[in-house]
Design goal:
Order of helices and strands: EEEEEEEHHHHHH
Largest sheet: 5 strands, antiparallel
Number of strands: 7
Distance between the termini: 62 Å
Shape: elongated
Structural class: alpha+beta
Radius of gyration: 22 Å
Strand content: 15-25%
Helix content: 40-55%
Number of domains: 2
């Protein structure tokens, strides 16, 4: 059985960026390491990839075959998430943790990290420790925003409420994650432009 390996575009630790030139699969003369499982129809492959930018950084992926289905089951370096430049630096880690959890099919933790991002940002913006209650925190943050901004762009308190409802119900809602991370991005992108324009 022959598999045609794709090129991939992960983060390169050496280049410190996602490469324009992708990682290519390495093709050693001995082939890829393969471990046969107990059942005849299962195998695990170790597949190496090399960054085409620096030609130095390697990633190894573990891929499991069951019948004709291939599943990525591991990698030598945990995925690095690039955070958009308009996300405030003091909550960038929460953003990347949320995306990483979501990419690993951990939807509830990803929703929790998005809510943590919002809460920690509002705490940082207003002054840590001033508001212990989430409703007061959200109201105080909303009061700092221009009415024109609030009428045009997504509201962090509304997003916070939606995420809280899902967490309280233990609702692993992937569509909610995808929609609300876009709303968070819009809020911060607009806020940055708003402040740069002196509005």
């Amino acid at each position: 059985m022959i598999f045609d390996l794709p090129t991939v575009k992960p983060f390169c630790e050496r280049c410190e960026e996602v490469q324009v030139q992708p990682f290519n699969p390495e093709s050693p003369t001995w082939g890829f390491l393969c471990v046969d499982m107990r059942r005849e129809n299962e195998q695990v492959f170790s597949v190496g990839y090399l960054c085409q930018g620096c030609k130095d950084f390697r990633l190894t992926f573990m891929v499991m075959r069951k019948d004709l289905r291939l599943t990525l089951t591991g990698r030598s370096e945990i995925e690095k998430i690039q955070v958009p430049p308009y996300i405030p630096k003091d909550v960038a880690l929460h953003y990347s943790s949320a995306v990483l959890a979501y990419n690993c099919n951990q939807v509830l933790p990803s929703l929790f990290m998005l809510r943590t991002l919002i809460e920690q940002y509002m705490q940082s913006f207003l002054g840590r420790g001033k508001y212990k209650d989430a409703d007061q925190l959200c109201s105080a943050y909303n009061a700092t925003l221009d009415d024109r901004f609030k009428s045009r762009f997504p509201s962090l308190p509304i997003i916070y409420g939606k995420l809280s409802d899902a967490l309280h119900a233990a609702d692993e809602d992937a569509e909610l994650f995808e929609s609300q991370i876009r709303e968070i991005q819009k809020h911060f992108r607009a806020k940055r432009s708003w402040e740069e324009d002196g509005c």
